[in-house]
Amino acid sequence: MDVNGTRFKLLLDQPDWSAATDEQGQLLGRVWAGGVPGPDPTLAWDKERHELTLRKQVFEFPAGLLDRPPQLLDRRGAGADVYGNWYWIGPDARTILVESVGDGSTTQFWPGRGDCAPPAERLGTFRPAEPAPPRPASQYVGAAVTEDHFLVVGTLDPPGLIVFDLLGGGPPSQLPWPAAVDFRPFDIARRPGGGVFVLDAEHGIVWELDRTFRIVPAEQPGPSSPPGGSFEPVEGPAESPPPRVSTVDATAVGADAIAVEAGFDGFLVLERGASAGRSSVAYYAAGSQVGAAMPVKDTAIGDVVGHDLALVGDTLFVADSAGNQAFAFTLELDGTGPHLTLATSYYPMRLFGGKGLVAANGQPWYDFGEGWIPLVAQRRSRYVESGALVTPVFDGAEPGCVWHRLALDAILPPDTSLSVSSKASDEADALAIAAWNPEPAPLARRTGVEVPFVDLGPYKTYELLFQRAQGRYLQVKLELRGDGRSSPRVRALRAWFPRFSYLEHYLPGVYREDPVSTSFLDRYLANIEGMSTAIEDRIAAAQVLLHPQTVPPEWLDWLASWFDLALDPMWDDSRRRLFLANAMRFFAARGTMRGVEIALRFALDACVDAGVYDDTRPPALATARIVESFRTRKTPGVVFGDPTDLEPLRVVSTTARWQPAQGAEVLDAGYAAYLDSVGLPARSYPIADPGDETSDAWRTFSLAAVGFVPQLAEAEPWQAFLSRRYPNAVAAATAHGLPISPAGFDELEPPVTLPTGAAAVLDWYQFESVVLPMKRKAHRFTVLLPWPMRIADSSGHQLDHVQLRDLAKRIADVQKPAHTTYDVKFFWAAFRVGEARLGDDTLLASGSRVPELVEPAVLGRDYVGTTTLAGPLADDEIRRIAPSQPDTQEAP
Prior knowledge:
This protein is an alpha+beta fold. Helices cover 17% and strands 25% of the residues.
């Protein structure tokens, strides 16, 4: 609603636009869902951009008069390994070529070419009178690279397969086929989990081989129990002979099958169907066909005769037999078989040689010249040239409502346009017979959207003033027109009502006496009203500029300047708004450890919400861990992930430790006995390093018996300690057995020998074990960052660990308490059995040493032991299995 009380009816997003109808009266939602028979719709909904457009059509590459379509004889099996090396059968069908990813050169992979000359024959060597004729090379057909890095190639003479170990190297393994089984491989596809599918197009069957290259029977027979009373060996039944290979083990497919591709839990087969002028795709699982074969066709492109197919995810690519392009289909599978939905993207195949269409490393590839290039969608859109819709009936709630304006948020490329017609009536039933009234062409607003302070991004607001739309009920017909190469893109529609008339509110009645001039003057003043209302709306809505959740993104920095802040350019808008909305809570925590934690989470956490100000995460869940040094006085820093902590580990004695209640005499006696046991002269226990030959023994005994290494205390902290423990200096001197009557605590000196009184011993013990360690660790903390941490700046560039450490330092410098010092370190392998508290220090889950989390080492940047030196093969956990020989027993 604007300042004049004018409201609007809105169409936004798919549910609203689906309620509109086409020119035949069919709901667009049903038409888009395919539930209405008849011609294809002229309008479409773009789900990615959330906008209404003309329906896309597939761009078809016209074949030239001299074009030579690829033939099935041009097909060559091909495959790529994970490193990007390509292997395929040469044009003579008796060599295997390789395109190396390193230099991009194409060389002969097999048979290998030796560079060494044959050794010279010695005089008198026996040899045949005539050299034996060379054995002809095998004829190859079909090839694929398996998931565990084996190159499998089909052979016709002799029939069988050869397998190359691409990781282990060496000559190939020959997998001959039983002589009794006529085997004619044509196409080979990799099998999920290892192994291949082999299409024998001549016999119309598909063989499935597992990762050990043993034949997987098409139907798995169940176990049969032996008949009762049968004789068996005492040691148990003898090992059954290996099963014989026969065509029963293969899956029968269509006689016109030309390509096989693994998919879902089975495989897909492309049936060429050249005689019928239409190919089809069939799905097979567990040795039988699932549902019916799906024709490769669409009303937009008609029938397609395929040359090859490739499946990437749920997108099926079919190369057209004309050799100029491939068609992409979204593949869905249910009990009735495969279902194909045409994608409108254009996939040209320039200079396609017909060797094949191959899915490798997550995308489709086709042969180009002597190599292979990815099949990429080209931005060459094609649309129907026009389309129209009729909006639902808008209710103005008042009889005789004068509808004001129509606003459209849209993008109009060159040579596209929008046309609007309207009809209005006080009776809803009368709209069906009312005539459409053409409205003026909508024009772009120079001041942007009419709703104040709303950012439309790339969209513009096009508006028009309704001319004769008067009545309670309104319908609008919107026509989109294009040139076939582009389409209008409509995001939202707003129909404003009722009109706030300057003529009725501000001019005398004499200006409303003549109906013709009244109508003109009312519409003329409505233009002025539109400009004035836009200004008044911005004034009335000025409060949105002062709220972090409603202020436009470009004004966030201005709003932050009220706090004398400069927002981090790495933050997105949601993070900036959250910070500004809780700025006072953040400033309340500034200068505390809590403030440092909040600031680090804002900068380093991937997801931040308002809970950052309230919850206190345990260290295991925190991105950056803050360790205050005084909390680690009894625990070495290495337990908290700090391997550079220089303080020694505590030595814990297995014997009972001395307690102050036992008195100084027990400690002196124990120390004397210990010195005697190590061959040193006995003496009383000193409370400072004696600096002689007993120093090492004194330190060892102190750690074991007392729990710490004493040192002479300074006067000021000792006097401050006594002042907090005793009401006055006289009471402190009396408790310590001093012969003086001091006027103040500054006259009390710290002890230089082990005190003798019970109170004095207890004071000395607690001062040495608690006060001094806390004083040494006070006002210091460490920020521990996990290694490795991946944070991107505003341009998407990943920050390295040096930049992350500098970022953490800048944050800590600004937010830390003024009297503290700190350092920033990285931690790894923080979870150690016996050295961590589950649920507090860390979580029992994948740690930071998981290989996926460790970056490769960079010379001069990384530390030894924090990363890896190995390349991609370090992550290869494949257990190499030598190809097994198929059973050579002949089938009965």
